[in-house]
Write a structure and sequence with these properties.
Shape: rod-shaped
Structural class: alpha/beta
Number of helices: 9
Strand order of the largest sheet: 2-4-8-11-14-18-22-26-29
Distance between the termini: 71 Å
Largest sheet: 9 strands, parallel
Strand content: 15-25%
Oligomer: single chain
């Protein structure tokens, strides 16, 4: 069966003869260009398993339902398209889709064998239901910038997205999803950036298994409710540290906030410590700022592991005892020498070692005095860091 594009347009604009159920054509070859730009039909248009040798143009058209399942055409242009209910492109085979600023009252289906050899762009569109891409193949990127979706986005089971040129393969920057964002079972790949989720707001959970992402990701400004699904805390720590383009505070804070709301305090500490490690390695710190950051991490874990300072303090006391005992310049019993070493080094505990004298005339005696002064400074420092870390002072300034 053959039908011209002009005939389809004529039928859709002839409201008096158009059936209330709309126009349904199955398995036809459309000759000439099908251009329905600015057609206001408010009726269903169904072109299932049809073939077109020229681009299908639907710019600013209005339908109650649009079913182009199985359509084979060079491209689909649908800028400003309005559909009261669903837009179906399941199983369609196209070179490219240019569908900026659509208004869809139901859901959009790019699934069940949908294939695009070129880019698919739905940026700036509003979809009241779901965007379903499961089983679709997108060979030159899926661009969903500033999209508004009322339910969920499924880049899930069997979906494959590659390419994207200078942009990410899947680009959702600025998109708002009232429901879930689901990548479970999908595959997104790129030699550079595979996934761009900058400033995406998800009203419910995000399902993001990292084994389906081949390439790097941009997550700055991504927010979601609840715990992220399909990836462990360890996988998140590794992903944020090694597979994002650069250090950014916000993705770490979002992850920590989610776990804190769930009462996972141990995981929160692990996330915060890993964040500080990433800041030191990739953040914009001065040379001295990086050095102080390293010291703070080694001594109190940036305030999240204050017990480390006690370990360092114990090390200082051990060194002090060793210096006194090995010097031979302190005159008293061994037990009193230990008391003397603790007395001069620790800022917290005073031990009676009044009978001990130091032979300051000898080099060893002068070494004992100099070293104990230094050790006392270090002991005070570690004790102070412990108190600051325990009370959260270091953490708040991190």
């Amino acid at each position: 069966m053959e039908i011209t594009g002009d005939e389809i347009r004529r039928r859709m604009i002839d409201h008096e003869s158009l059936d209330p159920g709309g126009l349904k054509i199955v398995g036809a070859t459309i000759t000439g260009q099908l251009d329905l730009s600015d057609v206001v039909a408010k009726r269903p248009l169904v072109l299932q398993d049809c073939k077109a040798d020229q681009p299908v143009v639907l710019n600013r058209a209005q339908f109650s339902l649009l079913d182009l399942s199985g359509l084979a055409a060079p491209s689909l242009e649908a800028r400003g398209l309005t559909v009261d209910h669903h837009l179906r492109l399941s199983g369609a085979r196209l070179t490219a889709v240019d569908a900026l600023h659509m208004r869809i009252g139901g859901s959009v289906y790019l699934d069940e064998g949908f294939r695009a050899a070129g880019s698919v762009t739905l940026s700036g569109s509003q979809i009241a239901g779901v965007l379903m891409c499961g089983g679709g193949r997108f060979e030159d990127g899926l661009f969903l910038v500033d999209l508004r979706v009322g339910d969920a986005i499924f880049v899930n089971q069997g979906c494959e997205v590659t390419g994207g040129g200078r942009h990410a393969s899947v680009r959702l920057r600025g998109t708002r999803v009232d429901g879930q964002l689901i990548f479970r079972g999908g595959r997104v790949s790129s030699s550079n950036v595979a996934l761009d989720l900058r400033h995406v707001r998800v009203g419910k959970e995000i399902f993001l298994p990292f084994d389906g992402i081949e390439g790097r990701a941009q997550l700055e400004g991504l927010t979601y409710e609840g715990l992220p699904r399909d990836a462990t805390v360890d996988e998140w720590l590794e992903f944020l540290s090694t597979r994002t383009l650069r250090y950014s505070t916000q993705p770490w804070t979002q992850l920590a906030t989610a776990h804190q709301a769930a009462g996972h305090e141990r995981d929160v500490r692990r996330i915060r410590v890993a964040q500080q490690r990433d800041l030191r390695l990739r953040g914009q710190l001065s040379r001295w700022g990086r050095l102080w950051h390293l010291v703070r991490g080694m001594t109190v874990g940036h305030g999240y592991r204050p017990g480390l300072a006690l370990v360092w303090l114990a090390g200082v006391l051990t060194v002090s005892v060793g210096v006194v005992l090995l010097s031979g310049a302190v005159r008293c019993s061994v037990i009193e020498q230990v008391g003397y070493a603790l007395n001069v080094a620790t800022p917290l505990v005073k031990v009676d070692a009044t009978r001990c004298t130091v032979d300051v005339a000898s080099g060893a005696g002068r070494l004992v005095l100099a070293s104990t002064w230094l050790l006392q400074v270090l002991a005070w420092a570690f004790a102070t860091l412990f108190v600051a870390g325990f009370t959260g002072l270091v953490r708040r300034n991190a």
